[in-house]
């Protein structure tokens, strides 16, 4: 297999933007894919996957290539060469790199792979934290699973179409999908494809959403006609699913701290034909007070470390800091105590995160249940989903019910 010059240069430029200019990998990948209109799907696949792989394996590749940050272009070339050798490509002969012969690269790879944090290419602090919280054995399999490329999963927008119709439309475009047991709205792409370019997407027939993320709205047990509050709606992946399950009947209030995120949600809701959503920027405590004990269902999809979704966001390995996780745990306690008050007696609350750390998940829920407001809730059930067990993203969700009578 030969490496094409402009694909490789595009990859190096992208890595420079991610590592040296602090840009987000997904944005850089999206921009890079537009660079050359002549590229076919395999060229685009090469660019996207290579960028993600080198971001994912940054620490390991840098150690093998014996380069340190900040990476100048020569260093990026050396890391690229490591990637090429380990993936069975020849190092491009038009960019000979001295001092990194194949044998040396493979030898260093074998040697360094004996240390888990290097083998799995994560910061030492993250390795220690994962092992402390999940135990050595579970963490080792979990981080290995989260280093695998993510599958592309669609959520069929049942406000507009059905799974079978969408499947047939995609099949006509040579996009082959498979269904998932017990996940009526999910379709898994058999091969990567840019589904955002399809008319079906532009018409709002589906959203791209991980299979386990799709479990959350169903877990909340929403029904048409209810009043539902999604307190940390963000750009609305789960809000839109809830809207579909509510069949546009009832009231769905989407809240977030950031107007920019709710704006994105509005655009998506319009495309999806979701009409029962109201938007509230949380700019004062008044908003919460007004909703006191008013909602049948409340979703707290809390801000978290994201240590369940590294497959999808490999650059988070390098952006996350332990202090951020300490701080986010405090935010999680606060949002639980504050937003749970919105649930009416007899109503239900789901607390969810895309983290696999017990300290952000079941420990938060256990602590909440000892607070004054928490004592007004019964714990119904929870689901701790590891990427290594499910094949999709790591998630946590707990279902609580507010007691009818205050004790
Ligand atoms: C896990 S993300 C939400 C993802 C979104 N629910 C989805 O399914 O696409 C958490 C969200 O919480 C928001 N957030 C952070 N602190 C918050 C707070 N105190 N109150 C409400 N939202 C908050 C963030 O802006 C972010 O959009």
By CATH, the architecture of the largest domain is named: 3-Layer(aba) Sandwich
The CATH class of the largest domain turns out to be Alpha Beta
Within CATH, the superfamily of the largest domain carries the name Vaccinia Virus protein VP39
Count of separate structural domains: 3
Q: What order do the helices and strands follow?
A: HHHHHHHHHEHEEHEHEHEHEHEHHEHEHE
* CA radius of gyration: 23 Å
Structural class: alpha/beta
Q: Remind me, CATH topology of the largest domain?
A: Rossmann fold
Unreliably modeled segments: none
Which sheet architecture does the biggest sheet show? 7 strands, mixed
Write down the overall geometry: globular
Mean pLDDT: 94
How many H/I helical runs?
A: 19
Tell me the span between the first and last alpha carbons. Answer: 70 Å
Bound molecules: S-adenosylmethionine
β-strand amount: 15-25%
Task: Output the strand order for the largest sheet.
Answer: 7-6-5-8-9-11-10
Helix content: 40-55%
Task: Find the count of extended strands (DSSP E, 2+ residues).
Answer: 11
Walk me through this protein's architecture.
This protein is α/β, with parallel strands linked by helices. The chain has 3 domains: 110 residues, no CATH class; 56 residues, Alpha-Beta Plaits (2-Layer Sandwich), CATH 3.30.70.1170; 189 residues, Rossmann fold (3-Layer(aba) Sandwich), CATH 3.40.50.150. 44% of the residues lie in helices and 17% in strands. The chain is built from 19 helices and 11 strands. The chain has a 7-stranded mixed sheet with strand order 7-6-5-8-9-11-10, with helices on both faces. Strands 2-3-1-4 form a 4-stranded antiparallel sheet, with helices on one face. A hairpin with a 2-residue loop joins β2 and β3. α1 runs antiparallel to α2 and α2 packs antiparallel against α3. The longest helix is centred in the C-terminal third of the chain and has 18 residues. The chain is globular. The chain starts with a helix and ends in a 5-residue tail after the last strand. The mean pLDDT is 94. S-adenosylmethionine binds next to α13, β6 and α17. The site of S-adenosylmethionine (SAM) has 18 residues, from α13, β6 and α17. Belongs to the class I-like SAM-binding methyltransferase superfamily. RsmB/NOP family. It comes from Flavobacterium micromati. Keywords: Methyltransferase, RNA-binding, S-adenosyl-L-methionine, Transferase. This is 16S rRNA (Cytosine967-C5)-methyltransferase. One of its GO terms (biological process) is RNA methylation.
